[in-house]
Amino acid sequence: MEKLSALVLAAGKGTRMKSDLVKVLHPLAGRPMISWPVEAARQAGASRIVLVVGHQGERVREYFCADPEIAFAVQQEQLGTGHAVACAAPLLSGSGGRVLILCGDAPLIRPETLRGMLARHAARQAAVTVLTTHLDNPFGYGRVVKREEGRITRIVEEKDATAEEQGITEINSGIYCVETAFLLEALKGLRNDNAQGEYYLTDIVTAAAERNELCLAFPVADPEEVMGVNDRVQLATAATVLRRRINEELMLAGVTLIDPATTYIEKGVVIGRDSVIHPNVHISGATTIGARCTIGHSVSIAGCRLGADVIIKSGSVLTDSVLHDEVAVGPMAHLRPGTELLEQVKIGNFVETKKAVLGAGSKASHLTYLGDATIGKNVNIGCGTITCNYDGVRKHRTVIEDDVFVGSDVQFVAPVTIGRNSLIAAGTTVTQDVPPDSLAIARTPQVNKEGWKIKKAKG
Ligand code: UD1
Ligand code: CA
Q1: Which ligand sits closest to the CA of 228?
Q2: Looking at residue 121, what is its pLDDT?
Q3: d(C-alpha 102, C-alpha 6), whole Å
Q4: Which ligand 1 atom sits closest to the C-alpha of 79?
Q5: Calpha distance 256→250 (Å, rounded)
Q6: How far is residue 434's CA from residue 200's CA, in Å, rounded to a whole number?
Q7: What is the CA radius of gyration of the chain?
Q8: Nearest CA to ligand 1 atom 31
Q9: HSE of 28, CA atoms in CB hemisphere, 13 A
């Protein structure tokens, strides 16, 4: 197979986004817009990807800096799509093969479609293949002028088109496959004598026709795939499409989504079969969820690893935490970074954890804060228990060993260690370590003053 490179044009500012952030870095389903066409090119077989950047090029570069397959060409001034590609020419010369050209603001193109275009291009030995589609309203797009079925002789921009050409409904998507050697030659001949005074990449089509080289159209049936994002209305439309694709992929892999329209799962999230996701759930980052889990409504999970048979009840928020098999959390629990819950741990309502490890079978069922805590197996944490982990300057750890029973309304003034199998009486403020198998109790003895109310009423 011929060597395949890709060019992604992303130098434009995106004025209509009305944003301080360059258009191609606006997030879509958890990733910057430009990473979608980059990923599509990669999945279509491109081994080297050149991004043509201009506005906020440094920020785009920063995002991809760790990727050895990605190179950058800078287009200082945006003089047109042909000029943008010419800026990347030095990075293509000598590489032979063919080049996929994509737009950084057209995130919906599917890798399968690119593969189809590449196969047709190779089979017909074309110099250029243009991905096209038919639009009821083609206004604003370059129109595809054909000599005979398939073969294109020219692409004419809206502003340069005659009335007759404006009637053509087949449009240029801005996505191409071009033989590298032909492209490098054709770029040299581009001129800017057109209505916009720009160097048009589309003029390589005329160059191919003049040299008797074949230029093909590869029409896609679904115009959605080539939709460009120019403003935030289109950004939301594109996000909806990407979300629907992610959701459909999950459902086809055996995950139940009760209401896909209100389920927000980012690309890259892994969910095991027979898991059930209720409405208004957000799952993001590098999250993996095992088989047969239930995620209740209005739950948010970011950067977590959940084992199998885990239940997260509604309203819970989980960040950077690890949950082993058969854990149950919520409703309305808050697991903050560094939480690890071993098998069968139960975290109930209004419980907050942070940098806290709970051993297998331990429970904190109600109204509790566990921060900087290491808790063993089969520990019961009573209602209203608090680890007082912060002295105003530093954080301190609470260690509770296996089989400890903590009554309700206990405070652990850290650093403190509770030996295994001890019992902490309700209402105790623990300020000293407790040896194993002990009872710790620290409360003011109760005083009952009989008849006190009656005496008070009499004055
Ligand atoms: C271009 C095509 C048009 C096609 C349309 C599809 C040309 C001359 N016209 O239109 O036939 O129907 O795309 O959307 O190519 N860019 C740069 N540097 C520049 C100019 C553009 O990097 O100097 C980038 C933009 O950031 C964007 C892409 O190229 O990602 C397309 O640019 P845009 O201005 O939207 O293309 P049009 O000229 O409108
Ligand atoms: Ca434009």
Answers
A1: 1
A2: 97
A3: 7
A4: 23
A5: 8
A6: 78
A7: 31
A8: 103
A9: 30
State whether the beta carbon of 85 lies less than 6 angstroms from ligand 1: no
Task: Provide the whole-model pTM.
Answer: 0.93
- Whether 52 is in the pocket of ligand 1, judged by its Cβ within 6 Å, is yes
- Nearest to residue 375, comparing CAs of 349, 402, 413? 402
Q: What atom of ligand 1 comes closest to residue 105's alpha carbon?
A: 30
Number of H helices, E strands in the chain: 9, 37
Q: List the structure tokens of 115.
A: 């593969």
Ligand in closest contact with the CA of 22: 1
Q: How close is the Cα of 242 to the center of ligand 2, in Å? A: 23
pLDDT, tens digit, for every residue of 345-374? Answer: 999 999 999 999 999 999 999 999 999 999
Say how far apart CA 418 and CA 245 lie, in whole Å: 51
pLDDT value, residue 1 = 63
**Percentage of residues of the chain with pLDDT beyond 90:** 96
Question: What's the CA-to-centroid distance between 230 and ligand 2, angstroms?
Answer: 8
What domains are there in the chain, each with its CATH number?
A: 4-226 (3.90.550.10), 250-440 (2.160.10.10)
User: Which of 410, 418, 329, 317 lies closest to 375 in space, CA to CA?
Assistant: 418
Ligand 1 pocket: which of 81, 103, 226 to mutate (most atoms within 8 A of CB): 81
Q: Report the 10 Å Cβ neighbour count for 1.
A: 8
Residue 338 · residue 321 · CB < 8 Å: yes
83 close to 199: Cβ distance less than 8 angstroms: yes
Asked if residue 138 has its Cβ within 6 Å of ligand 1, the reply is: no
Cα 264 to its chain centre, rounded Å, is: 10
| Distance from the alpha carbon of residue 80 to the mean position of ligand 1, in angstroms | 7
CB of 192 within 6 A of ligand 1: the answer is no
- b/e string for 244-280 if b means 16 or more Cβ within 10 A? eebbeebeeeebebeebeebbbbbebebbeebebbeb
Ligand nearest to the CA of 105: 1
* pLDDT single digits (tens) 273-321: 999 999 999 999 999 999 999 999 999 999 999 999 999 999 999 999 9
**DSSP string covering 399-436:** EE-TT-EE-SS-EEESSEEE-TT-EE-TT-EE-S-B-T
Q: Does the C-beta of 161 come closer than 6 Å to ligand 1? A: no
Q: Whose CA is nearest to atom 25 of ligand 1?
A: 12
Question: Ligand 1 within 6 A of 177 CB?
Answer: no
Phi, then psi, of 449 in degrees rounded to 5? -105, 100
First to last CA, the chain: 102
